[in-house]
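no rush on this but wanted to send it before i forget. theres a chain ive been looking at and ive put its sequence and its fold in token form underneath. please have a look and point out which stretches look like helix strand or loop to you. thanks a lot i owe you, the record is right below:
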Amino acid sequence: MDCKNLTEKQEKKMYPQTKQLILKKMEEGFYPGVAAAFIKENQVESFTAGFAQVVPEKQPMTEDLLFDAASLTKVVATTSLVLRLLEDGKIELDQPLHKYLSEFENQTITLRHLLTHTSDIKTWIPNRDELSQEELIAAYLKLEPGEQLGKEVKYTDAGTILLGLMLEKIYQETAVEIFQEQVLEPLGMMNSLFLPFPSKKTVPTEQLPSGEVLRGQTHDPKARVLAEHAGNAGLFIDLNDSITFVQMYLNKGKISNGRFLEEETIDSLLQDQTPEKNGYRSLGWDLKKDVEDGHAILFHTGYTGTFFLIDIKTQEALIFLSNRVHPVDHRAEYLICRDEIVENFLKEKAVLQK
């Protein structure tokens, strides 16, 4: 791929080694294109490179394009709202989901279990991708936990799907309407949206066996069926709105016209919130450790090739948006590549702090 398509906004190069690695991995074919940003205190360096689309024709990557955020939806939308409800005292972390979503049959799985991925919920649903929206929702409401409930982390989409259904019960609106009104609008994320129509403004994802390239449709098959009710995926976000969201975290919940989250809430996320304090996961977020002193750093990924890495203590962040499933999904190779980028950034920022 041709780095001539590289565009950037900042003269000063903030994390040159990590940036070089991101571009190198693109050249090696791990993803056709990328939009990324480094944040250090009040400084932002953003850049795009490569192609948003290569099939059926090439389209250069630009900063105004919307990415299928995949599981970043979990932290941007679903987790954000659950945290605000916890602050308001409308829900309690260690109460069963059944208390707030009576249609969910099990009475032992708590909100903490779902947020920390410790529910051991058995997610296999027969003929899942052939079910209607109504049938799929009914199947999720019947899921049960396994023997490791509360004991170990097993990442799943089911937790945020169920939390999304809980939010619908509380707000009496669809998840998409709630996320738009309660998250995107207050944060001023005016470019981001759910259920977009296929257009040149969205970055395409996978090419299906039929030859069709998914564009403006959610890549996750469950979220495609759940549509306006999906709490696990479905957000389409651009680089600038990603920066806005991450800066809210770096500012410990403060936004231009007040607060989105309380400082105490942000602080609580920098701790292991699993029931037995043995999973090193927070509420909604995964945690990484600083290579120098081991302090907690917020981390979350999206299947389509996205991630946020937010170090609140040192006021640094890396935002990474790629189209790595386009046109073909090579997940195993990408995961090695992603982990290398994350590790490089953590090491480079430690060196630059000295």
About this structure: DSSP finds eleven helices and 13 strands in the chain. The domain at 3-353 is CATH 3.40.710.10 (Beta-lactamase). Residues 205 and 219 are 7 Å apart (CA to CA). The chain has a mean pLDDT of 96.
